[in-house]
Amino acid sequence: MMMHGVCAVYKPRGMTSAKTVAIIKRILRTHQKEALAAAQQPPNAENEHTSAPPKRLKVGHGGTLDRLAEGVLVIGVGHGCKHLKHFLGGTKEYVVTAELGKETDTYDMDGAVTARSPFQHISLAQTLSALHQFRGQFMQTPPLFSALKIHGKRLSDYTRAGVHVEPRARLVHVTQLDLCYFAPPEVTLHIACKSGLYVRSLVHDLGTALDSHASVTTLIRTRVNNFGLLDALQPDNWTPQHFERAFRRYPLSFAKD
């Protein structure tokens, strides 16, 4: 028995995307082995050398979500892995809360504090005005701690090794940016964007635009293409039965919509 499909899972805060995939892969491969063992006929003289070994189940994800972040992570299983490209370049939505007046080397609470600055001067009107420059298309520099590949190696690996590599600024596209909560030093934003945007960099750059600093405290990805929070399987439901139902609910053609 072989599973094939694409669905969304809810990645918990503190777990890497790679670890999420590894856990799901282990669950589904164990189920695959048990199902094959139960269906297999006892070996005899005719078939003991003719049965082919089962194919290894492929599992992948459609776009990395930071360890600190939580929310929608698209998972592909079996033939579904071929459809993940539709999500790598798709649209995404986030709700992010930031702390003003603090900068860290990772641009979030996982990193070491590198600077502190006053934030009491920041007004609601000033913040709303500053957000205008982060709507539409603009150039953005990725954070030094990121999964961006440069010469086949992650930028974060260079940074941790003490090798400074300056990433090139690239064009990003924010289709919607709203201020949801304003109580300095805490602000919360809703962001809808095309693939390629680094929310941590946007928050960092917003802090600079406000003559202060800013770092991400919480980050939730609420949507990837057609998959929203209500579509995402919670960790308690990462079972073969739930994945089978999800694959039936979202056929592979859903990935292209």
From TrEMBL:
Gene3D superfamilies: Pseudouridine synthase
Keyword entries, A-Z: Isomerase, tRNA processing
Pseudouridine synthase II N-terminal domain location: 58-199
EC number: 5.4.99.25
Region (Disordered): 34-58
GO biological process: mRNA pseudouridine synthesis; tRNA modification
Broad class of enzyme this protein falls into: isomerase
GO CC list: nucleus
Name of the protein described by the UniProt record: tRNA pseudouridine(55) synthase
GO molecular function: RNA binding; tRNA pseudouridine(55) synthase activity
Pfam families the UniProt entry points to: TruB_N
Family membership noted in the UniProt record: Belongs to the pseudouridine synthase TruB family.
Organism: Salpingoeca rosetta (strain ATCC 50818 / BSB-021)
